[in-house]
Amino acid sequence: MTKHRLFWPAVVLAVLLLANLAFTPDFFAIRIKDGHLYGSLIDILHFGAPLVLVALGMTLVIATGGIDLSVGSTVAIAGALACLHISEAADPASPGTVVASVAIALAVALVLGVANGVLVARVGVQPIIATLILMVAGRGVAQLVTGGQIITVTSGPYRLIGGGYWLAVPFAVLLAVVVVLLTALLTRRTALGLLLESVGGNPVASRLVGIRASGLIALVYVFSALCAAVAGLMISSNVSSADGNNAGLWIELDAILAVVVGGTSLTGGRFSLGGTVLGALIIQALSTTIYTIGIPPETTLVFKAFVVITVCLIQSPAFRAKAVRRRSSATRSARPRPLKTEEAEA
Amino acid sequence: MTSNPMAGAVRRGRQYVPLLVTSVLLVLMFSVGSVQYDGFLSGQVLLNLLIDNAFLLVVAVGMTFVVLTGGIDLSVGAVVALSTMLSAWLVERHGWPPLLVIPLVLVVGTVAGFVMGWVIHSFEIQPFIVTLAGMFLARGLCYTISIDSISITDPTYTAFAQTRIPLPGDLFVSPSVLVAVGVVAVAFVVLHHTRLGRNVYALGGSEQSALLMGLPVARTKIAVYAVSGFCSSLGGVLLTFYMLSGYGLHAVGLELDAIAAVVIGGTLLTGGSGYLLGTVLGVLVLGLIQTLISFQGTLSSWWTRIVIGGLLFVFILLQRLIVGRRKV
């Protein structure tokens, strides 16, 4: 069982949640208040939903051996555009306005994703640099859209996306679940996932066997941008406002962290959607834990640093080789034992 | 590919194209500014560019070393912030003498860079993710020291901050400018005239070949990150003088500015090609954008980010045109 790729992320999440139980005895309690589900676990799912989405897009990008640094900016731009449209509309509460604002945000995200995709797949720029451009300029664009202000909106239907409930469950959670299931269906029930992994594993070889690598690569950047846009809508909807400066700030790092923690290798060629979802929930649970224990939330970064570096070390073949060599030389005199389990890990 | 000396000369000539474009851009921007705005055409405006961007210049010099090896250092902004925080905390809260604090801060930055380089090299983890962890750690440490900004009232710091060194023709510079110029000069000599410098270029050209040639790949790789760490902490010390405070939110996004300066300065992100003086021009271009926008007056500060993003885009396309699709 320990060999299953989701085993370690699941253990970490369980340990984190159990650690919370020690500090807040009613941590696992879920109540129904006003027909809505309430509780710390629901909160983790609710606030983790945008991160799950962004990390989902990031997973596919990383599977092709790329990286998308621009998701944070896309989050900000999508939220800003939607809120701007709603705040300028004659009737902010009408469903038509909200649908239009969502459509605008998604359309612009589509354009941003295509721009990233073309730069990486057609022009051949390194992904980290190509998306860096949008990361730098995107914040400026988001502030341009909001005019440097925080746009506040009061719109019932818009509030539903990130802050509302449907069938007693937070709507954002349902939305995230649907997107995750659709993605899983598309990548694992069709050849798409296999093709993405082959492009990430060896772009030249996959081109030689006739896979259209550039189209696939462009596609994952578009998907990532769309996921980020939906996350941006959720975040801005939950707080009923758009902040070009701070919305989605550093979410790209959290998303990369979630992907890595979930067991997807940064070198590409393999991905695990389930792992990413667990990874995103771990990150969110970590933030929640730090709040409940009463450590200043800003120090979360220190914890994250250790998590990243530990996971990367475990994933690093060089590190495992060194660790295994050390252990085998230590145990050789005592009792030789098979080291297969260590090597099969990660 | 070819042993034709002419082709080699042409390729070498092409290497200078980004540098040339950046110089032309700089002259063009300055001319436009001079024509458009009164008081733009003065030596002091140029010197203010250096005064306001001395710390960025120092950080970008360190980044140039890393990028030349084909790596990237995302931790620079966080190390700068940590340096300001550490300086302010030790000087103000603990009363340590500045002469002790400054070397200590420099050692901390260098060690941080060294450790990151060591992890990158010995465990073969991508520089991007290791320095990302370094960035988290350094920013997090800032907040563990203090969540609020610590302002500095120490006489040594304020004296250093207020000192103006007069130059002929009613001009002046700050001591930070001298430090930055010194760093550039030393880095120039190291990069272009020492064995370490040659190794840096060789490593960026092809790590495999460098290894086969018997060059000290491990030492060079760790060294560039240590250099970047040192430059970041020195940049942090300069920023402390400039801001007279330590704060965990200082220098947010500085890593992007530093990378942008290096790219605009004509250094290839794939490594192995570029010039230190190009980075200086890159920093000046970034500074000039800010100056132009502040002279313009009606444009908001976020236009700076958009323009820098646009410039990055243009220069990256230019790089692709120059190296072709050779290094995809």
Précis, in short:
The complex is a heterodimer of chains A (346) and B (328). Chain A is 71% helix and 5% strand.
How would you characterize the overall build of this protein?
- The complex is a heterodimer of chains A (346) and B (328).
- The radius of gyration of chain A is 21 Å and the shape is globular.
- The relative contact order of chain A is 0.18.
- In chain A, a hairpin with a 2-residue loop joins strand 1 and strand 2 (36-38).
- Chain A has helices spanning 7-23, 40-63, 71-88, 95-123, 127-146, 156-163, 171-188, 192-201, 203-208, 213-238, 251-261, 273-293, 300-315, 317-332, 340-344, and strands at 31-33, 36-38, 150-152, 165-166, 169-170, 241-243.
- A two-stranded antiparallel ribbon of chain A has the order 1-2.
- Chain A has a domain at 45-279.
- Chain A has 346 residues and is mainly alpha-helical.
- Chain A contains 15 helices and 6 strands.
- In chain A, helix 3 (71-88) packs antiparallel against helix 4, helix 4 (95-123) packs antiparallel against helix 5 and helix 11 packs across helix 12 (273-293).
- Chain B has helices spanning 5-15, 17-36, 43-68, 76-93, 98-123, 127-145, 155-162, 175-193, 195-205, 207-212, 217-243, 254-264, 276-296, 302-323; strands at residues 150-151, 165-167, 171-173, 245-246.
- In chain B, a hairpin with a 3-residue loop joins strand 2 (165-167) and strand 3.
- Chain B has a two-stranded antiparallel sheet with strand order 1-4. Chain B has a two-stranded antiparallel sheet with strand order 2-3.
- Chain B is mostly helical and 328 residues long.
- Helices cover 75% and strands 3% of the residues of chain B.
- Classes of the chains: A mainly alpha (346), B mainly alpha (328).
- At the A-B interface, helix 5, helix 11, helix 13 and helix 14 of A face helix 5, helix 6, helix 12 and helix 14 of B.
- Chain A: The chain crosses the membrane at residues 37-62, 69-87, 99-121, 128-151, 163-186, 216-235, 247-266, 273-295, 301-319.
- Chain A: This is Simple sugar transport system permease protein.
- Chain A: InterPro entries: ABC_transp_permease.
- Chain A: Pfam families: BPD_transp_2.
- Chain A: It is a multi-pass membrane protein.
- Chain B: Keywords: Cell membrane, Membrane, Sugar transport, Transmembrane, Transmembrane helix, Transport.
